[in-house]
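Just wondering, can you check both lines?
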Amino acid sequence: MHLVRNKKANKIAKSRLSNAKTAMNDNNSDLFYTEIVKALWGYISDKLNIPVSDLNKDSARQKLKDVNLDENVINSFIETLDEAEYAKYSPESNSDNKMQHLYEKSSDIILLVERNLK
């Protein structure tokens, strides 16, 4: 089961990012931020086999360290997640530029983690 989740992690994250991009283009900021957060959390949960019940920033950080991921990449992932979660509840985060920036940052960090875990 773990191997299947691991292999599908990137595909599912890309699908969520695609949904986020559609929401961004439709100016649906609530759905956009929800999909970004789900893409990031879902990716790390599936990729590192962290049960949802144990999923938090500390467990994610520790698992990423356990697989010898570079500390800068780990910090970037956590920062992107923090930014997405903050933006989801922040009224000033609904500008197109902020959503575009977060979309690109989320895509980049998932790709970076994927490359570094191989």
Observations:
- Residues 2-117 form a domain with the Four Helix Bundle (Hemerythrin (Met), subunit A) fold (CATH 1.20.120).
- The first helix runs from residue 2 to 25.
